[in-house]
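Lab notebook, bench 4. The sequencing result for the construct came back, and we need a structural model before the next group meeting so we can plan mutations. Quick request posted to the team channel:

Model the 3D structure of this chain.
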Amino acid sequence: MVVYSFYVFDRHAECIYKKHWTPRPNSKSIRATNGFPDNTPQAKTLSAEDDAKLIFGTIFSLRNMVRKLGGPDDK
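Done. Here's the predicted structure in token form:
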């Protein structure tokens, strides 16, 4: 498993620390397994604030789901 970003949030949903690592660049001349160039569209980059909000939302949703599935002993 490779980690490219690390975030720490406080209890008020504020991002208090973030660290990004850039992946190794891929060469544009690399061809897909079928021999043709990989023409997949590039994803839009998000601002750091939007990125932190999405990460927090994902973690918050997962926490709520685990609480609902875990029952009364996991509160």
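Residues 6 and 16 are 11 Å apart (CA to CA).
Will bring this to the meeting.
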